[in-house]
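pls design
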């Protein structure tokens, strides 16, 4: 294994840690901080805070992902497009965790396979933007880059990048993660509670179907208990965190050298992914994340060539370590059946075994005539189906799903069994970034994926 902290010698003969080499490379999607001294102070403060996740947990996740890559487990990643500081409330966090747990139950039961549960949570605060600025009427201001950078309100003060938000990002991630750990370790996630996760959600066909499934699970557990089986395993669930590794003034100070192994771990989340806009092979993000031990995801859009994919494998997973690399494809429903198979074919002849995950959200964005950013549930479903079809045709493993969702009854994506239409989007549209599946749509999608997995 290469030494991930290898020093790098620069053109002027100075020597820096490999972990800082990204500073020499082209970098995209960073804010213009008006006060760079204050950014330095905030980063130094973050570097002094405790890690949010531990190296040992990250290593276990890598093993779990390796199983998914070889078709023996399935990854479920879900959460907000952009978490907000105001949205880090007990109710909202609980509803998201419950939704993911319910989806996981549906998938586990349908596929008879372990499901790795992972939230786009506790750090998903920084957003890449297609434009650096936003114009409303005749006013142009910096774009909103996520709560860890600036505010959403369209005023010059709010849109100014504020370094104190970096520190607030850390604290909000810490309290979110604390609640996640309490929910998933403290009895709430006990499989005997499978019914109670449905409580508080309005009655609808997906929840009704879930209730029936929960009844079957209850029965199976009671049978096994009566037969004397020991069920300690059912009391807790492993729940992992993930976010896009985008904002280097946060990711770098959260990266620490593990005392056991002497290697660097990004301790801000278990799993970090590189976005579609920042996956340049010679750019800062790919270089930096090539040097940390966490499992790394890379978003792949429809323009990805087999060669670009191969180069990413060589850079991010030179040792072909099981579980190290996940490709999250986001092709678009109309494109996936053409764009994905050539990549899967190329993988078969490469000596690599990445985990393949579908993100059926980011290739399917539309804007309605009344100005809402939305997605059609049918397109999401169609991309998921195209993902499974492509893998079945080529003979590779469809290993997971990555979705933007919330546990609340928002009206952000069109369709689903409630047949949400354009006029209803205004009823409860809360996302500050991309539209999310609401609780019911998420559950419906889980049933559909379970069917695909069972095929
Ligand atoms: C996201 O996951 O919110 C995102 C911006 O995705 P992508 O990089 O695939 O566009
Ligand atoms: Co998004």
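designed seq:
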């Amino acid at each position: 294994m290469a030494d991930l902290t290898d020093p790098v010698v620069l053109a002027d003969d100075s020597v820096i840690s490999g972990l800082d080499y990204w500073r020499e490379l082209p970098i995209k999607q960073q804010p213009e901080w008006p006060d760079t001294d204050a950014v330095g102070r905030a980063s130094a403060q973050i570097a002094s805070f405790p890690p949010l996740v531990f190296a040992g947990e990250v290593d276990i996740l890598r093993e779990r992902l390796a199983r998914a890559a070889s078709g023996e487990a399935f990854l479920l990643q879900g959460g907000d497009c952009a978490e907000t500081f105001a949205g880090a409330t007990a109710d909202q966090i609980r509803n998201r965790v419950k939704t993911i747990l319910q989806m996981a139950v549906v998938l586990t039961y349908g596929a008879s396979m372990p499901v790795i549960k992972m939230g786009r949570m506790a750090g998903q605060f920084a957003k890449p933007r297609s434009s650096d600025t936003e114009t409303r009427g005749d006013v142009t201001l910096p774009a909103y880059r996520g709560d860890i950078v600036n505010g959403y309100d369209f005023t010059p003060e709010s849109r100014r990048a504020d370094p104190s938000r970096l520190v607030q990002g850390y604290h909000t991630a810490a309290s979110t993660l604390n609640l996640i750990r309490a929910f998933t370790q403290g009895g709430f996630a006990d499989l005997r509670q499978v019914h109670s996760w449905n409580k508080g959600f309005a009655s609808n066909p997906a929840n009704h179907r879930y209730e029936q499934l929960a009844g079957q699970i209850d029965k199976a557990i009671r049978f096994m208990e009566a037969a004397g089986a020991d069920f300690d395993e059912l009391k807790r669930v492993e729940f992992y965190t993930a976010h896009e590794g985008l904002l280097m003034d946060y990711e770098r100070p959260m990266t620490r050298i593990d005392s056991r192994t002497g290697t660097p771990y990004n301790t801000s989340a278990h799993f970090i992914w590189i976005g579609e806009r920042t996956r340049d092979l010679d750019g800062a993000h790919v270089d930096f994340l090539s040097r940390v031990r966490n499992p790394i995801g890379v978003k792949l859009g429809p323009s990805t060539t087999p060669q670009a994919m191969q180069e990413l494998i060589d850079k991010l997973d030179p040792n072909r370590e099981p579980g190290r690399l996940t490709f999250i494809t986001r092709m678009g429903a109309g494109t996936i059946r053409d764009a994905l198979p050539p990549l899967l074919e190329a993988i078969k002849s490469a000596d690599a075994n990445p985990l393949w995950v579908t993100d059926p959200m980011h290739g399917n964005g539309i804007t309605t005539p009344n100005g809402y950013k939305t997605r059609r549930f049918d397109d999401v479903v169609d991309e998921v189906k195209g993902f499974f079809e492509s893998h079945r045709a080529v003979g590779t493993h469809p290993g997971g799903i990555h979705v933007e969702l919330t546990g609340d009854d928002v009206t952000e994506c069109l369709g689903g069994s409630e047949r949400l239409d354009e006029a209803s989007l205004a009823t409860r549209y809360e996302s500050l970034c991309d539209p999310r599946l609401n609780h019911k749509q998420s559950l419906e999608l889980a049933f559909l994926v379970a069917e695909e997995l069972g095929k």
